Amino acid sequence: MRHILVIGAGRSASSLIKYLLDHSEAENLQVTIGDLSEELAKQKTNNHKNARSIAFNIFNEAQRKEEIQKADVVVSMLPAHLHLEVAKDCITYKKHMVTASYISPAMQELDAAAKENGLVFMNEIGLDPGIDHMSAMKVLDEIREKGGNIILFESFCGGLVAPESDTNLWNYKFTWNPRNVVLAGQGGAAKFIQEGTYKYIPYTKLFRRTEFLEVEGYGRFEAYANRDSLKYRSVYGLDNALTCYRGTIRRVGYSRAWDILVQLGMTDDSYTIDNSENMTYREFTNSFLPYHPTDTVEIKLRHAQKIDQDDIIWDKLVEIDLFNPNKKIGLIKATPAQILEKILSEKWALEPNDKDMIVMYHKFGYELNGEKKQIDSTMVCIGDDQTYTSMAKTVGLPVAIATLKILNKEITTPGVQLPITKEVYNPILKELEDYGVIFKETEVPYLGYNPLNIKN
Q: What is the DSSP string of 62-122?
């Protein structure tokens, strides 16, 4: 039997584990799933005869080394900062490694050792990062192969709620880590390049500078800029592209309403609120507003944020219970962001029968034979249920497919890498189509931003 060790059995691991076990008979696989909770690991295996579930603590050095030694490939689904010890052991025992996380500087430092030992250390092979890399590089390479010169690249991705489960005014529910949603965009200005000019959006303005996107069959979406759109510019070979922009997708209207919470200060994670455990939701909202002897919290907020009473934004704020005088926060020494996360987690939780949805959208602008052209590439994936969500599918399946292809020596280039070569992206994208992850590429008229080439 060939052994695969999967460390971490969280939400994103369900489709990954199912894929490996579904292929275990034909591929002669023994899959060990290790998690702090052995019970959780067991649930994900469904008592499959080729699966072994163990209680696994990454900080138990003896256990970690023993399990890694037994494996042929190690898949780490741990939080990114915990990959490193696993990676070092993989170097020591000459094991291939796969993660869905961004390549950290410390991971990159292992590149020479991985190459020296002929090891594939595949990273950034989930959804975003992952499927975004592969689907973008496929089209970029095709354009270059026919002699095209890339002048524009835009890439958008969002984890949303499926249309049939979209039951609130925000058109949004938490399909992933709520904390990441509450803190989105913080930590520096968003930066990108547009028509040859570097642009910056400070956090306080981020949610009022959105782009609109149309996806056939699913209607209109909006996107706000990611913090660093230029991170992959060189990696994708886009150093000469005039526009390079990456963003996060939401339904239209979300960002304008979210901006109210930002302006109030509710997304701040830099200080704690005194007596937060005894505070009501209404008192929390009032704590950001000026004192007035007669005006209600509602009137003060409307005046402060200039919200008309017939504005849909007002209904959205009421819907998330910000003015409830009876509900207590119940968190000791909590930051505003932690309190907001708790309030929203009650309102935006997926119901048992709800389904989630991933939307990805790339725009490619290029010149060929003196003519400007554009290709739009879209992908919509809807989850099956609360276990095999679209998020679990799009994160876990590319990891699983890459793991098997590395084991079968179909992916052999050694080193610390991301999935931007044909050896990796062609077979994985092709197989993903069998699971409903399908990109629709359409030639459209080149829109650009600035047909007169004036610096804006």
A: HHHHHHHHH-SEEEE-S-GGGHHHHHHHHHHTT-EEEESSPPPHHHHTTHHHHHHTT-EEE
